[in-house]
Design brief:
With 675 residues, the chain is an alpha/beta fold. The strands form five sheets. It has a five-stranded parallel β-sheet, sandwiched between helices. Strands 7-6-8-9-10 form a five-stranded parallel β-sheet, with helices on both faces.
Length: 675
Amino acid sequence: MTTSPMEDAELGSALAMLWRRHRQSNLDRISLLESITAEILRGTVDAAALAEGVGAAHKLAGSLGTFGFDAGSSSALYAEALLREPIVDGRLLAEAVTALRASVDEAARPPQDDRGSEGVAPAEMGPGAPIQLVSTDMDLISRLTVEAASLGLIIASVTDMPSSDTRVGGLPTVIVVDESALAGWSRASILEAVAKLARWAVIVILTERDGLRDRADLAISGVAGVIPRSQGARQTIAFLNEELTQLSPAPSRILALNLTDVFSASLIGAFSTSSCEIDLRNDAVACWASLDESGADLIVVGAAGSLVSGPNLCRVIRAHPRWKRMPIVVVGEMSSANLAEALSAGADDYVSADISTEDLSVRLYHRMERARLAQSRTDIDPLTGVGNRTSTEGSLDRMLRLSSRQNAPFSVALVVVDQIERIRESEGNAVCDVVLRRLGTRLIDAFRGEDVVGRWTDDGFAVGIYGATGKQASGRLVSVLASFAAEGIPTTSGREVRCTCSAGVASSPTDGTTLGSLERLGEVALQRAMVSRNCVLVASDRAPAQADGVVDVVLIEDDDSVADVIEHALTLRHYRFARFSDGAEAAAALGGGTVKGRVVLLDVGLPSLDGFGVLQVMRNQSVLDDTRVIMLTARSSEAEMLRALGLGAMEHITKPFSVPVLLGRLDQTLSRSVV
């Protein structure tokens, strides 16, 4: 059986999605090979590092080819062969690893648009902006470049300090200076050069001198950051990304209530030269509706109010799960009693009604900047007010553990907007933000406080529903999404858009008992739903296992990136399957009869017990009498093939493999199986 055009399209979409998920793990393996290559060239490598490098290269050979990076797969195979030699040729290995890096470098960078990794539009000079790294340390350059690529940042490395006399077009916004590259410079010369560069660029110093006096000298010269060279690449790049974001602050929105005409005029004047939007309201109900509709970066409220006073509005906002972190400034007559009442109610600041326009501008601007910085470091997605990906995963995991202890069902639903790309192209990102904010609000309002609603991707959400089976969760989602689809959303062009959503649902314990398995199956169901659009599909809708416990395929593969691709293909064909990543665990299940498969897809390089060991156990326990085994390996030597066939394997497929070819071989093998 060949794959259909619809299956081809879905497989292509799934491969792109799965590559985004496993991209970083593959980049980490390449970084490991680069580090080991450097150790080999220095003559400091040990046997343990070589073995680790062999494993990394082996996994890359299978994984990259599966995702279509054939050149990378070939380079990884060559690197693996070199690392297995009694004496490793460091020069040849360096060439192989360099080619390996180049083969996936462009794919390692996410598509460049104007949305940040957490769904917030970054600074104009953020992702994609060049960072110039002054360094001669190849290991440092490699680690920072790889980590920067994961955020869409571009690093250009040079060995000399850039000219500081004038700012020339094309020079970077951020310059990172590795002090070890300036070994021949005096301290005074470094400080002088940094002071000149700091006039037009953000300067960050990587140093091994971390004393207070050293930091003070650099700070006085205009350095924006002093980072120990020993600090991890992830923390360093996170700091640089934050600096880039702050270079072009995002437009702000101030919501004001119960202000006098005089103070309102002062507020407008304070931000007259900025892109800040000021929404003045005299009605508390209208103010609340505006907050709910458009959000805000800061609320300025008069201490006195006809319906709600400033302190009482603080209490209302602090009690709201979405807005409780909103910065609030209360305005009124300055007195100790008024100040104490406002701060005790949850206000962040209290300003006098007769404050000057200049002082008000500085006060509120810094309040918003500090709040924005603090918010970016918390677990809340600023655009939608729900949890971000990191906090959502933690909440889902805690809820799953609770449901397991209480022996209750738990469902995870992944939801995306079907028309989001079309809306982005025709109406712009601002309307997309409104759509996502509305959907987030709908989901929060529709589910109980004990359920979990969080931002999962740039264009979608995850919902964890305690006590609901897959079908029950699907029914609740259908109702919510139908209501959302009927809601017209205004655009800047004056017309309304209506959006449908697709969702995939996986539940515990029916579909899986770990968060990873629920995420994976939820994404598979979501991909199927997105083909039809405007529907909710449950992972367990695939063909159930037979009563005798026999599944069509047992997949034994420890590389998640390869296993996820195969699992998606099996689900697409509605094959019943079981999955293992540990050789000893799989051998015990198959040998003991707790799991029985018509076909076993068996990797060779497995932890605990390799594929040959698993095959030997299956042979000893007579499992092979009614089970066919297809070996999967990136190594295809004649000796290995003969060994596998001698132990009872029926076929041998070399990684990387084509998914349609794999499905075709499975169809043929299953049609001949005796179970």
